[in-house]
Design goal:
The protein has four helices and no strands. By secondary structure, the protein is an all-alpha fold. It has a domain of about 80 residues. About 5% of the residues have low confidence. This is Cell division protein FtsL. It comes from Porphyromonas loveana. InterPro entries: FtsL-like.
Length: about 160
């Protein structure tokens, strides 16, 4: 007698269930037993760690239909992260530039004070004496020019 039993193993069905056609003259042991449904309760879970790492979740129809949305979300996440780093870089650059402006202001004040100190009368005399120039200070005070103000100028 040959074995005519066919074992169908499918992911949607229970592995222990085998579909054998009843032989003539055989009576099934439990005719009132429920028939297997399309969604068995002992189905093996596919979303394990190794299933995800292996990429089997990509075969799911929902993932395949929403692949473009996933790519857009990944792209937008990368842009968001890049934007944060760019903002941090700009804040650092603003701090460096403010420090440079402060440094240049102090340099300008220092140079202006040096020019003011050099232009004082005493320092001018010292500079003339150090360079042994035959110059002497004027004994006549400088002339002060006044512009005449008349009543005709105020009418305008």
């Amino acid at each position: 007698m040959t074995d005519t039993t066919k074992h169908y193993i499918d992911d949607e069905e229970d592995i222990l269930y085998d579909e054998t056609p009843p032989q003539e003259g055989e009576i099934q042991a439990d005719e009132s037993a429920p028939q297997p449904t399309a969604q068995p309760t002992n189905q093996k879970r596919k979303n394990t760690f190794w299933g995800v790492m292996g990429g089997s979740f990509l075969e799911h129809p929902w993932v395949a239909s929403n692949l473009r949305l996933g790519l857009v979300l990944v792209f937008m996440s990368i842009v968001n992260i890049w934007n944060g780093y760019e903002a941090i870089d700009q804040v650092r650059q603003i701090g460096r530039l403010e420090e440079q402006v402060r440094d240049y202001r102090y340099r300008a004040l220092f140079k202006a004070s040096e020019v003011t100190a050099m232009s004082q009368k005493l320092n001018v005399e010292k500079a003339i004496q150090e360079q042994n120039l035959a110059l002497t200070l004027s004994q006549v005070p400088p002339y002060i020019l006044y512009r005449p103000t008349g009543s005709t100028d105020k009418k305008k």
